[in-house]
Design brief:
Blueprint (H helix, E strand, L loop, with lengths): L1 H28 L2 H10 L2 H18 L1 H4 L19 E3 L4 E14 L6 E12 L1 E11 L3 E9 L18 H37 L1 H16 L2 H10 L7 H31 L3 H8 L4 H12 L1 H24 L11 H4 L6 H6 L5 H23 L6
Antiparallel strand pairs: 1-2, 2-3, 4-5
Helix pairs in contact: 2-14, 3-5, 3-14, 5-6, 5-8, 5-11, 6-8, 7-8, 8-11, 9-10, 11-14
Length: 383
């Protein structure tokens, strides 16, 4: 009996060792992308940042459905403080949240209107309710919103602005503009950087010299003055779509230079490898060698660079719109919303108008954390 127990224990230990050895072997034979994912998961802040970035883009994509009101819907409740979402009506806890009614009062000294909760009036929060019409993903018109309250009740989770518009709804609509401009600007820079940097590094000679001198000239121009000058040149008669694409081009005009230099240096390094010579001997064209052999060999580094560049693009759009040189009302972006925060007295009196800044900071930090994790994981063989 003792021998059987010993044998069973030895077999169990052998199985554990075999399993452990198998895991190590899988790491040794894993592809570079699998190793990158393995290292990325170990970076806790990067994982949290990735989750936040995904959530932000979900909010941006489905902004019309998630927002209880349209971005331009006004009300009589100007500069109203955020309402409390309650789960208790005095008789006990309830799974259905609700908000109280709103009563307007006037200060006899300053004659300013203030709004207080009327606890005698309760408006339950209803889900999949009907409200303002919007275009769902640009496919069809609908009035269905994720949540809302019955009229004449109002739900302002983050307060209202100077025209009584729901700030939470406007932040969601603004996220669609700010996040998409950052992404479109980086994709444009990505295309220009890979194309021009690849040509510069692969062909060299006069072509390389011309492209590098253009890059050096663009880098020598201060970024903010360049953006401001080009934005000020955008005609005021242009519509929102034209201004949107103009700002995207302006932001990406200088952003490709750094990426082009990275691509050039990587191209010069990888071009000496044997598989490139083998592709040339096989009769592959220059375009095929660049697109199918050279660029994929360091694509992980390009993805990291692109991830770290998106926050700069978002901050660039926000800065231009904040200064009145970018997008203009009635277009809503985080920068446009922050224009209301230019007055210190207004911010001190109505601090909730800084909510767009909180979303901006959270998004930029999340992108930076995710980029740091990708940068560490981009070289999985580094000890």
């Amino acid at each position: 009996m003792s021998d059987m127990t010993t044998a069973a224990g030895t077999g169990a230990l052998a199985n554990v060792a075999h399993t452990s050895l198998s895991d190590e072997e899988r790491l040794f034979v894993a592809s570079q992308w699998s190793l990158m994912l393995h290292h990325f998961k170990k970076h806790r802040l990067a994982v949290v940042g990735s989750i936040i970035v995904i959530l932000m883009y979900i909010l941006a994509i489905f902004h019309g459905f998630l927002a209880p009101y349209d971005k331009l819907t006004r009300s009589e409740y100007m500069y109203m403080a955020p309402q409390k979402l309650l789960f208790s009506d005095g008789t006990g806890f309830s799974l259905r949240p609700h908000v109280h009614g709103i009563t307007a009062t006037s200060d006899p000294v300053t004659f300013t209107r203030t709004f207080v909760s009327d606890e005698s009036v309760i408006y339950p929060v209803r889900f999949f309710t009907q409200g303002d019409e919007y275009s769902f993903l640009g496919l069809f018109k609908t009035r269905t919103h994720l949540f809302g309250v019955d009229e004449p009740g109002k739900i302002f989770l983050m307060g209202t602005d100077d025209l009584g518009r729901d700030l939470f709804s406007r932040i969601l609509y603004g996220s669609a503009i700010s996040l998409s401009i950052g992404l479109m600007g980086v994709l444009t820079s990505f295309f220009l950087g890979i194309t021009l940097g690849g040509i510069s590094g692969f062909y060299g000679g006069v072509t390389d010299t011309i492209i590098q001198r253009v890059i050096e000239f663009l880098i020598s121009i201060p970024t903010i003055p360049l953006w401001m000058a080009l934005s000020a040149a955008v005609p005021a008669s242009w519509n929102a779509i034209q201004v949107y694409f103009a700002i995207t081009i302006i932001l990406s005009l200088r952003g490709w230079c750094g990426l082009a230099r990275i691509v050039r240096s990587k191209m010069l390094e990888v071009a000496q490898y044997d598989f490139v010579m083998a592709a040339k001997l096989a009769g592959a064209s220059d375009a095929r060698i660049i697109a199918r052999h050279l660029i994929p060999s360091f694509m992980s580094f390009l993805i990291v660079d692109m991830t770290l560049a998106i926050p700069s693009m978002i901050l660039g759009e926000t800065s231009l719109s904040f200064l009145g040189l970018g997008l203009r009302p009635p277009v809503v972006s985080w920068g446009v919303l922050l224009q209301a925060a230019t007055n210190v007295r207004t911010v001190a009196t109505y601090p909730w108008i800084m909510w767009p800044g909180a979303f901006l900071i959270l998004t930029v930090l999340a992108f930076n954390f995710m980029g740091d994790g990708l940068r560490d994981a981009a070289d999985p063989y580094k000890v």
